[in-house]
Structure to design on (646 residues):
C-alpha cells in the first residue's frame, strides 16, 4: 500500500468513525460496540508497545476506552477521531510510565545473551521454515526489548509512527508538539533504537558516533563523485 | 531538476536522513541521497538499519486485545460512573443495560472477538469468574454462618442483602444538651427498658416497664450488658409485619424499618459496612436532603402511631456536612439520653432480600429489626432512572428494581 492508498484508507476510516460518533450521539447504542471493537486491538497494541507488559497494557487500554466513552461529547471533530483517541491513550501511557517509572534500566553493558543463546540452540534443531519463524520472533523480541530501553518520549513517537502509522501532523497533535519537534525527535528516537538494538545484540557499530546531533556533512552527490566536501562550498 | 553529471550538494543532515528513511524524498532526491550515503558506510548502515527497524515494526501488526477487555471496560465505566453519581449526589438504581461487545477465547487458545449483546456475551465471558466468586461467597457464608451459630446460637449471620445505604441522616435526640436541640417528650412505655444498673448503655427509662417478652443474647449475658427488649406495641396499623408483607409495603413505598441497638454509633457503623457490600451503595445524604423535612414529619407521625412519642429533631444540624453520628450532650438535670437516626436504604422489594437485610443488621449487633407499615408512602423519593447512563454495563437479568425505605435506628448515644 503506497502513501496515497494509505491516505485514502485513513480518510475512509475517519469517515466511518465520524459516522459512528454521529450514530452514538443520536442514540444508537450499537454504534458504541462497533467503535470500541474497532479500536481495541489498535489501542492494546499501542499500550503494549509502550509498557511491554500485557496486563498493564490491558489496564491502560481499558482506561483509555473509559475516557473515550466519557469524553466523546468533547470530541469536536477538529482532528481525526483516531488521533483524538490515540492522544488519550498516549497521555495515559506516558503518565503511567512517568509516574511509576516503569522504564527498565538493564545494564547497557550487558547484552541479553540468554535469549540469543536459547534461540540459537533452538534454531539448530529446527527446520528452515521454523528457523525463519524463530528468527522473526527473535527479531520482534529484540525490537521490543530495545524499545523498552528508550526514553518514553522516544518510545511514544516510534510507536505512533511505526506501529500506528501516523503522519507527522497527527503525531504532533497526539503529542502536543510542533511538527519540527516531531521530526527531530523521531530521528533521535530511531538513532536511540538502533543503538539499543546493537547493544542488545552485542553488535556495537554504525550508530556509534551518531548522537542526537545527528549526522552532519555535505557531499557532492553527482553519480561519479567520490569527493567529500566540507560543510562549506 | 539536476542534470546528469551536475554536481549537487547534498547535506546529509538529520532532516535529510530522516526523510530518506521515511521515504519522504522525491525519487530523484532519494537516489542522490542514496549515492551520498554509499560513500558514508557508517551512515548508510545506520540509515538502512533504521529502515529495517521501521519495516519490522510495521510488519508486526496488531496484537489481539485480551478477551473480555470490553467487558472490563464496562465494569470500570460503571464503577467510575457510580463514583461520579455519588459525587454529584445522584442515587444509582438498578436498571438494565443493553448491549456491549464482548470478547471470547477461541478453542485454540488464541483470542478472538465477537460482537454480541452484553446480556449474552458479557455474562458468558464472566461466567467462570463469577462462578468462582459465587463459590468463594458460599464458603464465606458457610464459615460465617457456622461461626454465627457457634457464637450466637439464636442468630444467624448472613451476607449482605441486595441493598444500599443512603447516608441520609436525621438525628433525633430525645435529650439534647445543646442549644440547638429541642427538648423531647418523655419516653413512653415501650421504650427500651434498662437492664442491670451496671449497664453502661443508657436507654430511655420507661415509666412503667412492661413485662419482658423477649430476651436476646442469652448465651452472652455474661459478656455483654443484659438488654431486654419489650415487644413492639400494637399500632393502629397492627403489629410489625413479616417480610412477605414488608416486601409488598416496600413496593408501595409504605415500609418503615425500625432497628434497635444498644450502641447507636456501632449500629451506624454497621450500616456503613452494609453500604460497602455492593458497588451501588453509599450515596451522599444530599440525595434526600430535599425530603428530610417531610420525612422527619412523616416519621414522627409514624412513631406516634407505633406508640412512640415523637422526638425533637434538629434539621439544621443534620443538613450540615458532618456525617458522623451525633453525640448527645446529656443534661445534668436529666441524664437520660436516647439517640436516633434515620437513614434511607435502597432495597429490592423482595421478602428474601428483606430477610437478608434483617439478618445482616442482626449480624451488625442490632437487637431487633422490625418492619412496619406506614399509612402513606414515605417521602424518600424514588431511585432515578439510570437506564440511559448504564445501558451497556450489565445484562437486564442482573438488575433488580429497588425502592427506597427509611430506617429508624434507635440506641444509646
Amino acid at each position: 500500500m503506497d502513501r496515497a492508498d494509505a491516505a485514502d484508507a485513513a480518510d475512509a476510516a475517519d469517515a466511518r468513525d465520524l459516522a459512528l460518533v454521529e450514530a452514538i450521539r443520536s442514540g444508537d447504542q450499537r454504534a458504541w460496540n462497533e467503535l470500541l471493537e474497532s479500536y481495541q486491538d489498535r489501542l492494546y497494541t499501542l499500550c503494549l508497545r509502550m509498557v511491554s507488559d500485557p496486563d498493564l497494557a490491558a489496564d491502560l487500554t481499558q482506561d483509555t476506552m473509559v475516557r473515550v466513552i466519557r469524553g466523546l461529547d468533547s470530541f469536536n471533530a477538529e482532528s481525526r477521531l483516531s488521533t483524538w483517541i490515540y492522544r488519550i491513550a498516549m497521555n495515559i501511557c506516558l503518565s503511567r510510565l512517568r509516574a511509576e517509572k516503569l522504564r527498565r534500566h538493564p545494564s547497557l553493558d550487558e547484552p541479553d545473551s540468554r535469549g540469543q543463546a536459547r534461540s540459537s540452540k533452538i534454531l539448530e534443531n529446527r527446520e528452515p521454515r521454523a528457523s525463519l519463524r524463530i528468527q522473526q520472533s527473535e527479531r520482534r523480541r529484540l525490537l521490543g526489548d530495545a524499545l523498552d530501553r528508550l526514553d518514553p518520549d522516544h518510545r511514544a513517537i516510534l510507536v505512533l509512527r511505526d506501529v500506528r502509522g501516523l503522519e507527522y501532523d497527527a503525531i504532533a497533535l497526539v503529542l502536543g508538539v510542533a511538527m519540527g519537534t516531531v521530526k527531530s525527535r523521531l530521528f533521535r528516537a530511531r538513532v536511540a533504537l538502533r543503538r539499543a538494538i546493537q547493544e542488545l545484540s552485542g553488535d556495537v557499530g554504525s550508530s556509534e558516533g551518531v548522537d542526537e546531533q545527528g549526522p552532519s556533512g555535505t557531499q557532492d552527490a553527482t553519480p561519479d563523485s567520490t569527493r567529500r566536501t566540507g560543510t562549506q562550498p | 531538476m539536476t542534470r546528469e553529471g551536475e554536481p549537487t550538494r547534498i547535506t546529509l543532515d538529520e532532516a535529510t536522513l530522516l526523510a530518506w528513511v521515511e521515504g519522504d524524498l522525491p525519487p530523484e532526491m532519494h537516489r542522490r541521497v542514496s549515492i551520498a550515503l554509499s560513500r558514508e558506510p557508517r551512515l548508510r548502515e545506520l540509515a538502512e538499519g533504521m529502515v529495517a527497524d521501521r519495516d519490522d515494526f510495521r510488519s508486526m501488526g496488531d496484537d489481539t486485545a485480551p478477551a473480555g477487555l470490553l467487558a472490563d471496560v464496562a465494569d470500570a465505566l460503571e464503577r467510575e460512573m457510580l463514583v461520579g453519581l455519588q459525587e454529584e449526589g445522584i442515587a444509582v438504581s438498578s436498571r438494565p443495560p443493553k448491549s456491549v461487545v464482548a470478547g471470547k477465547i477461541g478453542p485454540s487458545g488464541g483470542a478472538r472477538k465477537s460482537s454480541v449483546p452484553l446480556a449474552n456475551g458479557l455474562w458468558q465471558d464472566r461466567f467462570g469468574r463469577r462462578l468462582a466468586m459465587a463459590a468463594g461467597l458460599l464458603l464465606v457464608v458457610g464459615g460465617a454462618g457456622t461461626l454465627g451459630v457457634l457464637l450466637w446460637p439464636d442468630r444467624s449471620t448472613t451476607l449482605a442483602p441486595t441493598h444500599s445505604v443512603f447516608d441520609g441522616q436525621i438525628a433525633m435526640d430525645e435529650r439534647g444538651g445543646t442549644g440547638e436541640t429541642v427538648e423531647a417528650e418523655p419516653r413512653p412505655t415501650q421504650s427500651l427498658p434498662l437492664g442491670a444498673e451496671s449497664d453502661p448503655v443508657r436507654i430511655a427509662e420507661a415509666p412503667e416497664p412492661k413485662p419482658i417478652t423477649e430476651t436476646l443474647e442469652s448465651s452472652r449475658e455474661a459478656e455483654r450488658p443484659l438488654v431486654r427488649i419489650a415487644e413492639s406495641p400494637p399500632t393502629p396499623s397492627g403489629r410489625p409485619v413479616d417480610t412477605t408483607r414488608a416486601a409488598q409495603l416496600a413496593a408501595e413505598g409504605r415500609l418503615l424499618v425500625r432497628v434497635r441497638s444498644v450502641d447507636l454509633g456501632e449500629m451506624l457503623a454497621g450500616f456503613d459496612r452494609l453500604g460497602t457490600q455492593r458497588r451501588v451503595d453509599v450515596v451522599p445524604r444530599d440525595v434526600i436532603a430535599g425530603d428530610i423535612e417531610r420525612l422527619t414529619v412523616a416519621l414522627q407521625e409514624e412513631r406516634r402511631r407505633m406508640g412512640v412519642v415523637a422526638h425533637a429533631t434538629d434539621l439544621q444540624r443534620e443538613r450540615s456536612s458532618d456525617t458522623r453520628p451525633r453525640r448527645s450532650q446529656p443534661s445534668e438535670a436529666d441524664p437520660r439520653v436516647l439517640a436516633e437516626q434515620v437513614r434511607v436504604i435502597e432495597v429490592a422489594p423482595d421478602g428474601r432480600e428483606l430477610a437478608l437485610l434483617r439478618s445482616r443488621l442482626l449480624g451488625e449487633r442490632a437487637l431487633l429489626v422490625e418492619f412496619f407499615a406506614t399509612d402513606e408512602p414515605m417521602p424518600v423519593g424514588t431511585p432515578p432512572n439510570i437506564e440511559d447512563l448504564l445501558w451497556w454495563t450489565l445484562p437486564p437479568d442482573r438488575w433488580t428494581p429497588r425502592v427506597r425505605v427509611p430506617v429508624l435506628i434507635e440506641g444509646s448515644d
Chain B has ten helices and ten strands.
